[in-house]
């Protein structure tokens, strides 16, 4: 990170009224509201071992570390420069002692973590198929957004390896691809347990889905009330969404 290209400097962004810092590259991958939604959807237990898969700059794990001081967190990221940012972010927020970072490819998950070694997993995977849409010219963003290094099948196989029986996996994914996510979860012996659709505004179609699934879990899915991000088009956050950023 010492040899940054011009315009590739780090920015310092904050959450929880400045109590959590997140360093990001100005022209690289930058987290979005999806990560905040994902981090608040997980309901961990005390001392759970949590894996953040496809961790990016580590913001999901950082939020979890801030909200739940007893968690033991591991972030796995395929891009070495982003893994370096996760280490920096963990250190600058005082989380380094309970925050492990792995720079590696989830396609080789068996070489990185022991089978069944985590209680929970969170994942904000690449959303777009490799050949879909216009690809971001910044490679850091392209790998994070498109299925270049990890498609849905790869991510689900990695989750099945990493989680113990009964462990919970939480995903945020485009609503338009929800059927693929649910079918893939079932194919890897996950049972969907909680599902919530995220809408930009009341009356809009669902944009994202938040799904929690249990490894080798039994039948029983709870469909939660819709989550609205904004009060109305062009308006402020809803009270629920604003609370996600409150200290």
Taken together, the total number of domains comes to: 1
Straight-line distance between termini:
30 Å
Q: Give the number of DSSP strands.
A: 11
Mean pLDDT: 89
Could you give the order of the helices and strands?
Answer: EEHEHEHEEHHEHEEEEH
What global shape is seen?
globular
Low-confidence stretches: 1-6, 142-148
**CATH architecture heading:** 3-Layer(aba) Sandwich
- Indicate the radius of gyration in whole angstroms: 17 Å
Task: From the 3D structure, determine the CATH topology.
Answer: Rossmann fold
Helix content, binned percent:
25-40%
CATH homologous superfamily descriptor? Vaccinia Virus protein VP39
H/I helix tally: 7
Q: How much of the polypeptide forms β-strand, as a percent range?
A: 25-35%
For the sheet with most strands, the description reads: 9 strands, mixed
Outline:
The protein has 247 residues and is an alpha/beta fold.
How would you describe what is shown here?
The protein has about 250 residues and is α/β, with parallel strands linked by helices. Helix content is about 25%, strand content about 30%. It contains 7 helices and 11 strands. Strands 3, 4, 5, 6, 7, 8, 9, 10 and 11 form a 9-stranded mixed sheet that branches. It has a two-stranded antiparallel ribbon with strand order 1-2. Helix 2 links the parallel strand 3 (about 50-55) and strand 4. Helix 1 crosses helix 2 (about 60-65).
């Amino acid at each position: 990170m010492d040899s940054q290209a011009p315009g590739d400097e780090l920015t310092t962004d904050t959450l929880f009224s400045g109590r959590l810092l997140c360093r990001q590259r100005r022209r690289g991958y930058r987290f979005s509201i999806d990560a905040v939604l994902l981090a608040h959807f997980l309901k961990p237990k005390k001392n759970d071992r949590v894996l953040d898969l496809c961790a990016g700059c580590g913001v999901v794990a950082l939020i979890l570390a801030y909200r739940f001081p007893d968690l033991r967190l591991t972030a796995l990221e395929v891009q070495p420069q982003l893994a370096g940012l996760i280490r920096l972010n963990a250190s600058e927020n005082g989380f380094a002692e309970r925050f492990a970072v792995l720079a590696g490819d989830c396609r080789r998950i068996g070489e990185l973590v022991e089978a069944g070694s985590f209680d929970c997993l969170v994942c904000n995977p690449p959303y777009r198929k490799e050949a879909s849409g216009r690809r971001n010219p910044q490679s850091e963003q392209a790998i994070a957004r498109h299925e270049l290094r990890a498609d849905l099948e790869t991510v689900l196989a990695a989750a099945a390896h990493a989680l113990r029986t009964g462990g919970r996996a939480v995903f945020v994914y485009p609503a338009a691809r929800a059927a693929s996510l649910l079918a893939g979860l079932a194919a890897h012996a996950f049972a969907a347990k909680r599902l919530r659709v995220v809408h930009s505004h009341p009356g809009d179609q669902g944009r994202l889905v938040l799904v929690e699934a249990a490894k080798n879990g039994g039948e029983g899915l709870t469909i939660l009330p819709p989550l609205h991000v904004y009060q109305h088009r062009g308006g402020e956050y809803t009270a629920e969404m604003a609370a996600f950023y409150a200290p």
